[in-house]
Design a protein that fits this description.
Blueprint: H1 3-12, H2 14-33, E1 36-37, E2 68-69, E3 76-77, H3 82-106, H4 113-123, E4 130-132, E5 137-140, H5 149-159, H6 181-198, H7 204-221, H8 230-246, H9 249-257, H10 262-269, H11 281-295, H12 302-313, H13 341-351, E6 365-367, E7 383-385, H14 390-394, E8 410-412, E9 417-421, E10 425-430, E11 446-450, E12 455-456, H15 468-473, E13 481-483, E14 494-499, E15 502-509, E16 512-520, E17 524-546, E18 550-551, E19 554-556, E20 565-570, E21 574-578, E22 584-588, E23 593-600, E24 609-628
Antiparallel strand pairs: 1-5, 2-3, 4-5, 6-7, 8-9, 9-10, 10-11, 11-12, 13-17, 14-15, 15-16, 16-17, 17-24, 18-21, 19-20, 20-23, 21-22, 22-24, 23-24
Length: 633
């Protein structure tokens, strides 16, 4: 790590000084607020830390370990598993604080390791001590206001008696400090990165505590590696950090070259076009963060480096005009290119020049984020324009390069995604292989943006422990034809044909065949969806978008469909109307079908969500929708 170059950035670049100022402010805040949960109570899955009513996250209040309110509706949650999820968040803050301390140690210009330790000793006039606090938390003694970053690092590492935390787990393996192997690995990477960054400025007690932690993590995590998956990429990154600390070269080689090692993860896990097989951008970049974390201490083949660089350059092609990325599958609803700029910054240093400029094209503001530092979910974060991450400070170039090229139409046959673009419309359809456990089973679903700002977005998901996620994962939450109200089984669709303005794909299972063809026209687009079934079944054609759908003629109606409300039946033999700001929809209603309008929650951009639903029973049906007009800004 070239810390001289980092200090030069701070001297010569205003954005770098702003990042350091916010890191220092967060460091001072958490020096007082950090309370490390002890081993007497287990941590719990952070996906429980979401509201059942509306899917919004609960408020992480450092002063309230036993009361947790929804950030949107205010609903209060007490007891487990929410208390345990709060403890998990606090453990993450310990790893984040360790990295802040290490960064401040390294930014102390012209200070040798010995000089830094002497300065720390002079500053800490009253020895700090660890003591048991309320609710099983570990706090500090009276000298907390004068701890130096070197002492803060020691305080955090020596507070953990790793073997005293009982192994426990849910959904993703076993952890000790954390509720599963995945969270344990991410936390370990943050902790041991901090020690590596601090170098020989760390005290002997800090290093000994870290070595004990690393040995325990190896025993816990190594037996759990066994698949091509984002979780296992993080396990390998954590094990590589442990191997680097302990100078365990055989383990480091195993992390790279074993059956499910890093080279296999990159070779088998990414589609040739550059997208991780789980498809949604959140898990794509989550995996990339793990692989780049590994790359800080472990080597990569030339082929792996090329594939990983492609994983940075590919996703901007999916983005909407404002930099939003589609939340396919279990992706988070608010997902923007700028959120993943730290991965692109780190890739610049580890892999060579990548399309870094595209990650800043939307000009959004973001809180300062550590790389990879378990994001700070608490309040009082200051947002900065442009480059606002420690990754930019430590890994990125002094100045941003320009974005490589404008976004165009494309088809990725292996990943199974096509995006059609015109000056007025961006329309995507997905048809590829199953994406594993995070797939919403929605082959042939489409998502749309028009130049007026109207969108029909994939709704993504909320916390997996939230009841609201049941709706977001349901087939009616997607622009699909649904059979018997059920999710599709796991299967792979296929591309039929495509061009920059036309895309046709097929999806088949259990004797049913579906074909969808979308074509961009000069005034909008057309969407033809054909269903051929093995017998008569209940069918529903569903399309949703921003705002309530305004049909020309409707009447009150009851519709048995959970999560939908304000239902009305469209009278007549065709659908005619529009969403506010959308093109006008014209669509014949097939014989034996009825058309309904409804509203629901969960639109990622926060706007009301309006639906059109055609329902009937048939052996075959063709749905022909024409979206036309109102495309100019």
């Amino acid at each position: 790590m070239d810390w001289h170059a980092v200090r030069r950035k701070v001297r010569t670049r205003g954005w770098a000084r702003d990042v350091v100022a916010q890191v220092r402010a967060q460091y001072e805040r958490w020096r007082l607020d950090l309370r490390i949960p002890g081993p007497d109570k287990p941590s719990a899955w952070t996906h429980h830390y979401f509201c059942d009513s509306d899917g919004a996250p609960l408020r992480f209040d450092v002063a309230s370990p036993e009361r947790h309110a929804c950030t949107r509706c205010g609903r209060l949650y007490t007891g487990e598993p929410w208390d345990g999820a709060w403890r998990t968040r606090m453990h993450n803050q310990a790893a984040a604080q360790a990295q802040r301390a290490a960064l401040l140690i390294r930014l102390a210009e012209n200070a040798s390791p010995a000089g830094r330790r002497i300065a720390a000793a002079k500053q800490a006039k009253v020895p700090w001590r660890v003591q048991a606090g309320d609710a099983g938390l570990i706090t500090v003694g009276t000298s907390e206001k004068i701890r130096s970053p070197v002492a803060e690092l020691e305080r955090i590492f020596t507070a953990y008696d790793y073997q005293a935390y009982e192994p426990h787990g849910v959904h993703a393996g076993i952890g000790r400090v954390h509720p599963q192997s995945l969270d344990e690995a991410v936390w370990t990477v943050g902790m041991l990165r901090a020690l590596r960054w601090a170098g020989d400025a760390a005290t002997r007690d800090t290093v000994e505590a870290a070595a004990t932690l690393a040995r325990g993590v190896i025993d816990l995590l190594k037996p759990q590696v066994g698949a091509i998956h984002n979780i296992h990429c993080w396990l390998l990154a954590a094990l590589a950090e442990c191997a680097a600390l302990l100078d365990d070269q055989p383990l480091l080689a195993w992390c790279r070259d074993s059956e499910h090692g890093i080279e296999a993860q990159i070779r088998q896990g990414f589609h040739p076009e550059g997208l991780w097989y789980e498809i949604n951008p959140h898990y794509h970049y989550y995996t990339v963060a793990a692989l780049l974390s590994y790359a800080e201490v472990g080597g990569l083949s030339d082929e792996a480096r090329t594939r990983l660089a492609r994983a940075i350059d590919a996703p901007p092609a999916l983005a909407y005009s404002d930099g939003r990325l589609p939340a396919y599958g279990d992706g988070w609803a608010r997902c923007f290119l700028g959120d993943f700029a730290p991965q692109a910054e780190a890739a610049w240093a580890r892999l060579g020049p990548v399309d870094l400029g595209s990650y800043y094209a939307d000009r959004r503001k973001n809180p300062v984020r550590l790389w990879f530092g378990n994001p700070d979910h608490a309040d009082r974060n200051v947002v900065l324009p442009g480059r606002s991450s420690v990754a930019a400070l430590v890994f990125g170039p002094d100045d941003l390069p320009a974005a490589q090229e404008p976004r165009r139409s494309f088809i990725w046959p292996e990943a199974g995604i096509g995006v059609l673009r015109s000056p007025h419309v961006r329309l995507a359809m997905r048809f590829g292989p199953d994406a594993g456990g995070h797939d919403h089973r929605d082959k042939l679903a489409v998502d749309v943006e028009t130049a007026t700002g109207w969108t029909s977005l994939d709704l993504g998901t909320s916390g997996y422990g939230s009841d609201f996620t049941t709706w977001l994962r349901s087939p009616r939450a997607h622009n699909l034809v649904v059979v018997d109200g059920a999710r599709q089984p796991s299967h792979t669709g296929r591309l039929l044909d495509g061009s920059p303005r036309h895309l046709s794909a097929e999806s088949a299972w259990d004797g049913h065949t579906f074909r969808r063809t979308v074509t961009i026209t000069d005034t909008g687009w057309t969407d033809t969806y054909q269903a051929r079934l093995d017998g008569e079944h209940d069918l529903e054609w569903i399309f949703h978008g921003d705002g309530a759908f305004q049909a020309d003629e409707t009447e009150p109606a009851e519709l048995d469909a959970p999560w939908l409300r304000d239902t009305r039946r469209i009278t007549g033999d065709r659908v005619e109307g529009h969403w506010p700001g959308s093109p006008r929809l014209t669509m014949p209603i097939p014989d034996g079908f009825h058309a309904y309008t409804a509203t629901a929650d969960g639109n990622p951009n926060g706007r009301p969500l309006g639906l059109i639903l055609l329902r009937g029973r048939a052996r075959q049906a063709t749905f022909e929708a024409t979206f036309e007009g109102n495309l100019l800004q």
